[in-house]
Write a structure and sequence with these properties.
This protein is an alpha+beta fold. The protein folds into three domains: 7-76 and 122-149, Ribosomal Protein S5, domain 2 (2-Layer Sandwich), CATH 3.30.230; 78-114, no CATH class; 151-289, no CATH class. 61% of the residues lie in helices and 14% in strands. It has helices at residues 46-54, 82-99, 107-110, 123-195, 204-217, 221-240, 245-265, 269-289; strands spanning 7-15, 18-27, 32-37, 60-70, 78-80, 117-119. Strands 1-2-4-3 form a four-stranded mixed beta sheet. Strands 5-6 form a two-stranded antiparallel ribbon. β1 and β2 (18-27) form a beta hairpin. The relative contact order is 0.14.
Length: 293
């Protein structure tokens, strides 16, 4: 089943006094691009987070936000972040001199910055916390995948309706073209007769060959057959494939190429009008395919 590249997934778990909130947003992208915003104490887990994401998606711009909270009843051992404290103290003194303030920097000023204190991570506690984050992330990704697949199903249904309608248009174009060829042949012969008063000076066999070649150039049967072939492959991929966005994009380009050739070969107003409709639908499909994984 195909999937859209846009979606949202969220999960919230709480265990052992630790609460984890994970939000995942997905947008379309030619490749897989994962951005993670997480607390500093699990920042080193970024590669593991991205590996888990790859289990669920292969393309798209994925933005992940992870928040960790601790129960007020839970005693969390803290330690002073000395480097952060020194940096804030220095900045506050610079601010004081810039504004020419008389009051000195006090401890109460520094206590406004939460970064001065950080939890003391033991290996056991760190693994326990990471386990909760993993489970929350997996649930969020499952919710994201479900939404992407649901939207992908809607896209597939809409594209399939458009393709079936386009195939009917191509069948009509082919019929009009075939009916038009004898008329064009007669018109060419009449035109040549008007230009050549004495047809005896022209090789009749060669003339017939040239007329046949000109008439053949107006025949768009081959292009219509190729268009339907591309359409069939497109529908097969749409119904049975996973991660087929690039393939579908290629097939849309090929169908567009065939429609351009038909337009160039035809000199019939009705066919030209139908080609305009065909191109409009192809452009709509092309835009939708950009959002398919």
């Amino acid at each position: 089943m195909i999937a859209s590249m846009t979606g949202f997934g969220k999960a919230e778990l709480k265990e052992g006094g630790i609460g984890v909130l994970v939000e995942v947003r997905s947008l379309n992208n030619r490749y897989l691009d994962v951005t993670v915003r997480s607390p500093k104490n699990i920042a080193f887990r970024e590669k593991e987070i991205k590996d888990l994401v790859r289990e669920f998606v292969s393309r798209g711009s994925i933005n992940i936000v992870i928040k960790i909270t601790y129960d007020s009843n839970e005693v969390v051992p803290l330690q002073i972040n000395a480097s952060a404290a020194k940096a804030y103290y220095k900045l506050l003194n610079q601010l004081k001199r810039t504004l020419k303030l008389r009051e000195g920097v006090k401890l109460e000023h520094l206590l406004n910055f939460s970064e001065l204190f950080e939890p003391v991570e033991t290996e056991e506690r760190s693994e326990f916390e990471w386990g909760i984050v993993q489970r929350a992330l997996r649930v969020a990704m499952e919710n994201l995948s479900a939404m992407r697949k649901q939207e992908g199903m809607e896209l597939a249904n809409d594209i399939e309706r458009r393709l079936l309608w386009m195939n009917e248009i191509v069948n009509e174009i082919e019929k009009i073209s075939k009916d038009k060829i004898p008329e064009e042949r007669t018109r060419l012969e009449k035109r040549i007769s008007e230009l050549l008063q004495d047809r005896s000076i022209v090789d009749s066999n060669r003339l017939e060959l040239e007329i046949a070649l000109l008439a053949d150039k107006l025949d768009v049967t081959e292009e219509c057959v190729r268009f339907r072939s591309h359409s069939k492959f497109f529908l097969d991929a749409l119904r049975n494939g996973d991660s087929v966005g690039r393939k579908l994009n290629f097939l849309v380009q090929e169908m567009s190429r065939e429609s351009n050739t038909i337009a160039a070969k035809s000199n019939d107003a009705t066919i030209s009008q139908k080609i305009v409709l065909l191109k409009e639908e192809l452009e709509k499909i092309r835009e939708q395919v950009q959002n398919i994984e």
